[in-house]
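Figure 2 data, in text form.
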Amino acid sequence: MSVLFIALPLALLLGAAGVTACVYCIRDGQYDDLDSPPMRILVDEQKKSRPEDSDGTPPSNP
């Protein structure tokens, strides 16, 4: 019976910490975009085979 004096407050504190963390994440915008991250896995990134200038044109050979 004396275990309840330790386990019950500990369970309540852990539950409150979980709810607080969830509310913080929701207000911080963690769950705003739920569609893009799963789609990023399906898209292959193209590797550049040669260096290019910032405007996308290949460098000129002098």
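Caption note: The mean pLDDT is 83.
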